[in-house]
Amino acid sequence: MAYKNERVNNIEIICPMNEIDAITGNEIKNHISKLTDVIGIIINFNKVNYLNSSGLRELIQSLRILKDKNIPMALCNLSDNITKIFTNTNLHKLFDIFNSENDAIKHLQEKHSV
């Protein structure tokens, strides 16, 4: 599997390994589409060293799937290079991006309690 996942406080945390491309992104999107009993999703980029346009497309589609289910998604631990991709494409305005997993968890818990 190209990612690991765990559940913390009813939040699904997905940790892709090495890269997010069309294949990995599609696997993550398929996993996300089956989730219903969570208060949020975090994609932790801690181990991601490569993201291409196909992977980015899959992340956007995942976000749309979750918006339809009213489940928020957050991204965290983006490297400088991946942060530049999100900034240069203005996708940083579409995604909730945090420096740490703990910050992302706190944000999703606060969103859920509103």
Automatic annotation (TrEMBL):
InterPro entries per UniProt: Anti-sigma_ant, STAS_dom, STAS_dom_sf
Any GO MF annotation of the entry: anti-sigma factor antagonist activity
Classification via Pfam families: STAS (PF01740)
Domain of life of the source: Bacteria
Domain STAS: 1-108
Family (UniProt): Belongs to the anti-sigma-factor antagonist family.
Name of protein: Anti-sigma factor antagonist
Originating species: Deferribacter autotrophicus
